[in-house]
Structures are given as C-alpha cells and as structure tokens.
C-alpha cells in the first residue's frame, strides 16, 4: 500500500457526545500529535446534515459540505480510520425542531413540506427525508458489527455491581404482540440465483397498477424478503391491549424503533396514538386533520396544534382527551413532572434502550405519580418480541440478574452494506389502496405477492451475499478467539431466517470450525440458552441480524454493566478499514437537559476512550506506525485505571462530571506513557508532563467542580454556538493551559 498520512477522522455529532467532544478532542489532539497522527473532524450532526442539503440557499460562509457522503466513501477504503460518536437519528418532530432552530439562527432553509404542493416542494421534502431517521449509521457501517464488554469493564462491574431492581414472581409485567397479521406472519423471502432488477407494484381491484418502486438492482446471491402489517389487525390488537391493561391495572407502554425504522414504525406509533385516544379521533378526526395533526408524530402533535382549532372545538377536544385519559389504562410516562407520556413523541421511548431499562427496574415503568408500576410492553410485531418475554420470564422465575456474578453476551451483528432493515427505508410503503403488491423481476417473474388492504404497511429488505459471508467469518473468528459458544439467532419458522440458515451452513464449511461450539437457535430459544449460561457466569456470543444486533447490544450491556456506553463497538470494514463506534448507546438527550439546567454533564466518555484505543492500534498496524501502537496500549492502561479509580462521571451536580473525567483520562494516559519502555522519546516527553498533572490535579478538579450549579447557555440545541459551547465545556484556564503546553511541545 502506498504510504499515506496516518489520519483519524473523528465525527462531530449531536447532544451529549457532541458536547463531550469540545472537552475531549483537545486531549486527543495533544496526545496523538506526539505520534505524528493527525486527527481531523467531520460534522455529521443532524444540523450539519440538514445544511449540507441546501447549499444554494445559504451564504458561502454558512455552507456545510456533505461530510456524511465523504465518510461513506472513505469507509470503503483500506486506510479508513473513523471514530464515530452516536448521532441523532431524527424523528420528524426532531427534524422540524432542528429546521426551526436553524432558521432562527439565520439560515434561509425552507419549511418541511408535510403535504408538498408542487415539484419544488416534493424535492425539498425528499432532501429533508434523506436526513431523517437512521440516515448516518447505514452509510458508514460498511462492515458487520463486533460489540462486547471489554475485560476491564466487565471486571469493574463485577467488583462494583450497579443497582438492579428486584423481581417478584407475581409481577404482572409482560410483552404483548399481535397473534397474526404482523410482519412476522406475512414474510416471504428468497435468495436470488442471478443478478436482476425488480419493480414493486400495487394492483388494485379495478386492475389499476401503481408502481411503488422500479429499477431496483439486486445482486446474485442476495437475500430479499417482503412482509406487511395489516393495519386493521394492528388496531384491533391495540384496542384489546388497552382494555386488558385497564383491567389488569397495569401501565400501557409501546416500544418501537421509530428512528431506525423511519417509515414503518412512526405509522405504527400513530395507530397506537389513535387507538389510545380513540374517542378523540373518532369524534374530531376531521378537525384535527384540518389543522395538520399527524398522529405518527405522537400525541404531542395533537397538543401542539390544539390552539389552531376554533375555541369551542378546542375545548371539546380537550374534554375528550381528559375523558380518554381517565377511561383508558394509565400510560407509562417519560417525564411525569412535565406530563410527557410514552405516546408523546416517537423518539422518546426507543425499544433497544427502553426495554432493558424496564427489565432493570423490576419490569416496571414510571406512572403519572412518579412511581414505578407494572406494565404491558407492547411490541406489535412478533419477530423479536419473544426475546424480551423470555428475559422477563427468566427474571420472574429466578429473580433479577446479579452483575457481580453474571456472564456476558457479546454480539456479532449482520449490518454491512445496508443489510436487512437498514436497507428497507426506500422500500417501505403505506399502501394507498387495497389490492395485491407484487415484486416482479426483469424476466417478469413474480418473486413475492401479498394481498393487502388500504393503509397496510408493506416493506422489503435486502441482504447482500458478501455481507452474510463476512458476518459468518467474523462469528467464527470471535468463537475461535474466545472459546465461547457462538449462537446464530435464526428462526427456521421465519422465511428470511430460513434463507440465512442455508447460507450460514454453507459458509461455515469455508472455515475450520473444529472444536468450536456453534448453534443455530430461534431467538426465544437462543435467549433461554444465553440466560441460563449468564446465570452460571458463562459467556456466549450472539450472532444476529441487524435488529437483534441493535436490541441485544443494549439489553445485555445494560443488565451486565449498567449501560451500553461502556461497550467496545468495532466495525471491521469489509475493505480493510476500521470504524470505531463509541459505545452502543445513543446521544443521551437527558444529559443535555441537566447540563443546561445546572452545568453538570453526566455523559461518560468511556466509549470514546475505548474506541480511540482500538483506532490507534488499527492505525499503527495499517500504517506501520509503532508509536501509534504504543499510544494505543498506553490508552488501554489508562482506561483500566480510569475504571479502577472510579473516575466515571457522577450523576450529581458539583461532583466529577464529563469534563473532569477527561482530565483524569489524560492524567492516566500521560502516566502510562511516562512508564512504558517501548518508546523512549514518548517517555521523555510525558515524564515532565506527568509531573504537571500531579502538581495541578487538586486545583483543576476544584475549579471544574466550582463552575457547576447554575444554568448555562450554549446558544442552540441542534447547532450550539461553538464559542459558547467551548466556553462551557472548557471552563478551567489551568487545565486548558496545561493541555496547550503539551500540544506546543510536540
Ligand atoms: N449509534 C448511534 O448513532 C445511536 C444513536 N441513537 C440516537 O440517540 C438518541 C437517544 O436515544 P435513546 O434511546 O434515548 O438512548 P441513549 O442510549 O442515548 O440513552 C438512554 C440512557 O442511557 C444512558 N446513557 C447512554 N449513553 C451514556 C453515556 N455515554 N454515559 C452515561 N449514560 C449514558 C443514559 O442514562 P441516564 O439517563 O440514566 O443517565 C441515557 O438516558 C436518539 O436520537 C437516537 O436516535 C441511539 C442509539 C445509537
Ligand atoms: O442507527 C440508529 O438509528 C440507531 C443505531 C443503534 O441504536 C445501534 O446501532 O445500536
Ligand atoms: Mg441500539
């Protein structure tokens, strides 16, 4: 390979991780510069991505290049080395809020056209929709996923077990899914023997054809599948669950992934809102629609638009809402102080984080009186819901898990090349009429056909052969490296999974699997198998598709180590590069709230620290840069000490927060560099630096705690003012000066 400059691309994202970057990046730069590594940033924040869509409407100074597209290309190169922090996968309400904020900041952006009236508005909507939902991860994830708790993290959790809510055998909490009429029940799947091009069309009863999509190119060996959800069955199920929750005296809660499944899940969410508030929508549906209410944006959208109704109607609607709330079951709350329910916005309760949080809290969620209560967790589709029910059953039978003794479940996830649901956005449709949806290939053969009704939600997913083959290889490598059993979570009763099982069986033959324990189990069985081992303190590798990758890499970490923020989250890119994600969680909006309110940021950057260590190691290997390897090893040592010394941020104001934790990480990193024997020049540089850390520790930590307590202004939520955010995140002159000295002396 031609020698290129060793370079790490560090992403600028949103909310808590973006704020943490103001404080942590100067540390990263000061240390990596000592090894001749350049660290460059790329803005892939929600606001940056919005601005990148509309260069013609902005002044030259306001323009933001399309960094996401650039990084997407970089990810396909062997020298790619990207540190990716979590970003907002925006729901429509978040997207609109970000547009409004940017407009107020002086960016001449168009409004989001809900109902485009002409071609120009169609184009504006299409540009915004590119930014909506899970628009970043599928582009950068040009590889499959390897997520696990590092040894030091697991050890720390065993020595310092986090609090786990007790479980009682008579808990009424459970998962509810549709008995029929869901995606699971209707799935059809096949593997293509040769490359082709397909079109998706709906033929209505009167013989009219509506082309939903055409010219979709598919590769030989690719697995495709199609399924749909019957909306009538969904609504009936939701109504039954509402009545059952009321009868059982438990909370009603809905758990969806409206961000990642940006087309299907907001629609399902909308049906839940309409069914829960049925008396309101039955009586006033027309009036609400006339003022632009869209239930897919949540109950919050109804409340936000009430003022647009005639005064008399508004009062009647408010009464009907009060009645629906009084007569229905209690709703699980997101924030009981502010009256925010589970149904307010589709991005507050996101299944990967919300279900484990519930299981960790005795299977309960918060009610309107700010107390925990049993709940039905509604997960309409059956494909993966059984995983949570099996976990709940296990807790009812054996009690809560014990972080001090429990084993670990790591994950090898199939997600490369927009595998499975990551490739479904542009092939998901709310059907405009009843009829038959057909997928037809270039030779005119009908690959799939579904009889559908108006309003049903139909979707098609793709999974490329190369991605599956790479995933199987990664699973075998992890099984070999750890000696742990690896379980492919695949259900032979599901059409898509049957195609995958055939490929897994074929590709396993390409590897030496002698002595490895490999299983193929349906998700519920795989859960039982893994939980039984976890209780015995044993480790297991879960090898899953994209959705279970997402679910399990929050579920097990949250149970095992208290949070998914402490996960090592590596994406070995298929062309040889590395994408290093920082933890398996998201951008923690609640943390920003606390910072703004009392200038304390409880975001733990351990995910960033872990990602940077593996990024340096990878970079050292690819660019034959020994110094990078030394730096990475030293960072590993620092990470272990950071855990041992308990320097994670506290949740409480005036205690150590994110900013102070960066000081300690740098301190321990300098110490490890001053003590290592591999690189004399680095030792010489960091020995006096370490003395400075020793000398200034108490002063810096005191100053960082003294700034806390009062609210702060960062000049924006989705696009903070960089100067204001930097002032808040780097408030300690002594610490800033020390870092500047380290950087200057490089
Ligand atoms: N890789 C990515 O880009 C991902 C992006 N997202 C996006 O993130 C946003 C929020 O998603 P949400 O479902 O609320 O999940 P989050 O993981 O952001 O938050 C859930 C909770 O996890 C805890 N947490 C997460 N990360 C950390 C951390 N580094 N340090 C300390 N605590 C942490 C916090 O708990 P506590 O309140 O107790 O402090 C937080 O409230 C959404 O916009 C979503 O689209 C979500 C997942 C992955
Ligand atoms: O891409 C997204 O929207 C969310 C991703 C996520 O939650 C994960 O990868 O764990
Ligand atoms: Mg997730």
Question: How much helix is in the residues?
Answer: 40-55%
Distance from first to last alpha carbon: 28 Å
Low-confidence stretches: none
The radius of gyration over CA amounts to: 26 Å
Can you list the strand order of the major beta sheet? 2-1-3-24-23-4-15-22-20-21
**Which overall shape is indicated by the principal axes computed on the Cα atoms?**
globular
The structure class reads alpha/beta
Helical element count? Answer: 26
Quantity of strands, as a count: 24
Oligomeric composition of the shown chains: single chain
| pLDDT averaged residue by residue | 97
Largest sheet: 10 strands, mixed
Q: Strand fraction band?
A: 15-25%
Bound molecules: NADPH dihydro-nicotinamide-adenine-dinucleotide phosphate, 2-oxoglutaric acid, magnesium ion
Binding site for NADP(+): 84-89, 137, 586-587, 591, 602-604, 651
GO biological process, one term: tricarboxylic acid cycle
Cofactor: Mg(2+); Mn(2+)
Catalytic activity: D-threo-isocitrate + NADP(+) = 2-oxoglutarate + CO2 + NADPH
């Amino acid at each position: 390979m031609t020698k290129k400059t060793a370079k790490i691309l560090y992403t600028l994202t949103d909310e808590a991780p973006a704020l943490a970057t103001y404080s942590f990046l100067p540390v990263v730069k000061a240390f990596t510069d000592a090894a001749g590594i350049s660290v460059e940033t790329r803005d892939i924040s929600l606001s940056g991505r919005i601005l990148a869509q509309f260069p013609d409407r902005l002044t030259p100074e306001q323009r933001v290049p399309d960094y996401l597209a650039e990084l997407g290309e970089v990810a396909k190169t062997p020298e790619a080395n990207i540190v990716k922090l979590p970003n907002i996968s925006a729901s429509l309400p978040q997207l609109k809020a970000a547009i409004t904020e940017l407009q107020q900041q002086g960016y001449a952006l168009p409004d989001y056209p809900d109902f485009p009236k002409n071609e120009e508005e169609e184009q504006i909507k299409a540009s915004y929709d590119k930014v909506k939902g899970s628009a970043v991860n599928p582009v950068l994830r040009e590889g499959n996923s390897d997520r696990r708790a590092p040894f030091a993290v697991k050890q720390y959790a065993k020595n310092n077990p986090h609090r786990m809510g007790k479980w009682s055998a008579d808990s009424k909490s459970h998962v509810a899914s549709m008995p029929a009429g869901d995606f699971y029940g209707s799935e059809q799947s096949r593997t293509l023997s040769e490359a082709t091009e397909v079109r998706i069309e709906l033929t209505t009863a009167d013989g009219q054809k509506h082309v939903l999509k055409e010219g979709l190119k598919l590769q030989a060996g690719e697995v495709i599948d199609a399924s749909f959800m019957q909306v009538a069955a969904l609504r009936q199920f939701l109504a039954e669950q509402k009545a059952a929750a009321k009868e059982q005296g438990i909370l009603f809660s809905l758990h969806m992934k409206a961000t990642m499944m940006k087309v299907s899940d907001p629609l399902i969410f909308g049906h839940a809102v309409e069914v829960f508030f049925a008396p309101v929508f039955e009586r006033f549906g027309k009036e609400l629609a006339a003022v632009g209410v869209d239930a897919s944006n949540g109950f919050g959208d109804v409340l936000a638009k009430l003022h647009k109704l005639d005064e008399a109607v508004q009062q009647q609607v408010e009464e009907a809402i009060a009645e629906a709330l009084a007569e229905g079951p209690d709703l699980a709350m997101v924030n009981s102080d502010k009256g925010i329910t589970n149904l307010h916005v589709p991005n507050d309760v996101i299944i990967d984080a919300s279900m484990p949080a519930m299981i960790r809290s005795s299977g309960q969620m918060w009610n309107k009186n700010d107390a925990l209560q049993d709940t039905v967790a509604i997960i309409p589709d059956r494909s993966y819901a059984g995983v949570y029910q099996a976990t709940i059953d296990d807790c009812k039978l054996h009690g809560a898990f014990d972080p001090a003794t429990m084993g670990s479940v790591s994950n090898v996830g199939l997600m490369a090349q927009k595998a499975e649901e990551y490739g479904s956005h542009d092939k998901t449709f709310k059907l405009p009429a009843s009829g038959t949806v057909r997928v037809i290939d270039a030779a005119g053969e009908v690959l799939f056909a579904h009889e559908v009704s108006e309003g049903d939600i139909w979707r098609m997913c793709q999974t490329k052969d190369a991605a599956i083959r790479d995933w199987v290889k990664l699973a075998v490598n992890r099984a070999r490296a750890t000696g742990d059993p690896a379980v492919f979570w695949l259900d032979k009763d599901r059409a898509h999974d049957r195609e995958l099982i055939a490929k897994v069986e074929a590709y396993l033959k390409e590897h030496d699997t002698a002595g490895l324990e490999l299983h193929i189990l349906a998700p519920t069985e795989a859960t039982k198998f893994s939980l039984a081992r976890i209780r015995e303190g044993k480790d297991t590798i879960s090898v899953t598709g994209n959705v279970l990758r997402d679910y399990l890499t929050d579920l097990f970490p949250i149970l095992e180590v208290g949070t998914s923020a402490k996960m090592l989250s590596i994406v070995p890119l298929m062309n040889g590069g590395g994408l290093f994600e920082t933890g398996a969680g998201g951008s923690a909006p609640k943390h920003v709230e606390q910072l703004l309110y009392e200038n304390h940021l409880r975001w733990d950057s351990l995910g960033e620290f872990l990602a940077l260590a593996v990024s340096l190691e990878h970079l050292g290997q690819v660019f034959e840069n020994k110094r990078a390897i030394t730096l990475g090893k030293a960072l590993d040592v620092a990470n272990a000490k950071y855990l041992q010394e308990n320097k994670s941020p506290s949740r409480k104001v005036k205690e150590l927060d994110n900013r102070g934790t960066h000081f300690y990480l740098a301190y321990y990193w300098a110490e490890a560099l001053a003590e290592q024997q591999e690189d004399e020049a680095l030792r010489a540089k960091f020995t006096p630096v370490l003395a400075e850390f020793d000398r200034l520790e108490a002063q810096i930590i005191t100053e960082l705690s003294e700034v806390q307590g009062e609210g702060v202004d960062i000049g924006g939520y989705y696009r903070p003012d960089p100067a204001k955010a930097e002032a808040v995140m780097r408030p300690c002159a002594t610490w800033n000066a020390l870092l500047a000295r380290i950087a200057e002396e490089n």
